[in-house]
Specification:
There is one protein chain. 35% of the residues lie in helices and 13% in strands. The strands form 2 sheets. The chain has a 7-stranded parallel sheet, sandwiched between helices. The radius of gyration is 21 Å and the shape is globular.
């Protein structure tokens, strides 16, 4: 069975695939065009996809009718048309859990960086602009006892909430499609409506899975409902927030600051005016960028494809219904 991987992943995953007897194929140049990517996919059996550059939709599946399975090197699967994959009985694997701690670490880092204007002050040092003491210049804010609002209290959101509870004794409120009884029991988290979440959060952190209905959910109307002292954090998907509206909210004092590990669009242009603001911290989508998390992702992605090659269910499948829909 041929496995096409569009970018290099940690050796642990490659070795597992090869030891299981799968033929691993890499492109000659990792910065391949969509046309080159499609040609590779047309001559393989299964795909291990790295990144969100390519869309797996009806057009793709029509062009690659021999694809039998897709393993994603990610938790998110918004770049895959799951309904179309289901229709064609194609399982789609993902890599949950192993990057929850690393990604929540980045959300926690962004929250503190924004609260203390770390990026702005670091740039001052680099620019040789470390002036004499000014008691009123670019003051930050403390997080102790504040209210953390989580939009999407799943694995990553729980880790973020736990960190904030233990470090700053923050109150936890959240909005989910379903109640998280574990978080309510262990963290004292309180389920609230979306409107209550927006109005009552001192820090609002986004951790939900992105779907089309979430596009630009955090827009001007929402930002205007937030506290002027609130910090907006997004480590999930850039599509959750409308970036021009966010810039306006930040410059007009509708909210206090923002920390982003994902942008809209992504990558962010180097001349984006939001980068000049003192109350933001923006990272280049590094949520899972630790040795431990990336190795774990490679292992899970390989396990998904090895199981499929043996005729078994993928241990981590984003659309498990494919195994039951024809039974």
């Amino acid at each position: 069975m041929k496995v096409f991987i569009n970018k290099r992943i940690p050796e642990i995953g490659i070795n597992m695939l090869q030891e299981a007897g799968l033929q691993v194929i890499f492109p000659e140049n990792e910065n391949i065009t969509p046309e080159e990517w499609l040609k590779y996919c047309q001559h393989t059996d299964v795909i291990l996809n790295v990144g969100g550059d390519f869309k797996y939709d009806k057009v793709f599946f029509d062009a690659c009718p021999d694809i039998k399975a897709i393993a994603l090197y990610s938790v998110g699967f918004d770049h895959v048309d799951i309904k179309e994959a289901n229709r064609r009985n194609i399982p789609v694997g993902n890599t949950p859990d192993v990057l929850s701690r690393a990604t929540s670490d980045v959300a926690f880092l962004l929250m503190q960086s924004v609260a203390r204007r770390a990026s702005y002050n670091f740039q001052k040092v680099k620019d040789g602009n470390w002036n004499s003491f000014d008691p009123l210049h670019a003051l930050g804010q403390e997080l102790y006892g504040k209210t953390l609002g989580i939009f999407g209290l799943g694995r990553i959101g729980f880790q973020m909430a736990e960190k904030c509870k233990k470090a700053f004794d923050m109150e936890i409120i959240y909005h989910n499609r379903h109640r998280n009884e574990e978080a309510e029991r262990e963290l004292g988290a309180v389920y609230v409506s979306f409107d209550e979440l927006v109005r009552n959060s001192d820090v609002l952190s986004v951790h939900a899975n992105f779907t089309p209905e979430h596009k630009d959910l955090f827009n001007q109307e929402v930002f205007e409902k937030m506290s002027p002292n609130a910090i907006f954090i997004n480590t999930a998907r850039g599509g959750f927030h409308q970036e021009q509206d966010l810039y306006k909210a930040l410059t007009e004092g509708k909210i206090w600051g923002a920390g982003l590990d994902v942008t809209n669009p992504e990558p962010m242009s180097a001349d984006n005016p939001i980068l000049e603001l003192s109350n933001v911290c923006i990272l280049p989508h590094i949520g899972s960028a630790t040795i431990e998390a990336r190795n774990g992702m490679a292992k899970l992605a390989a396990e998904n494809l090895i199981a499929f090659s043996k005729g078994e269910e993928m241990p981590n499948c984003a659309n498990p219904e494919v195994y039951f829909q024809h039974s």
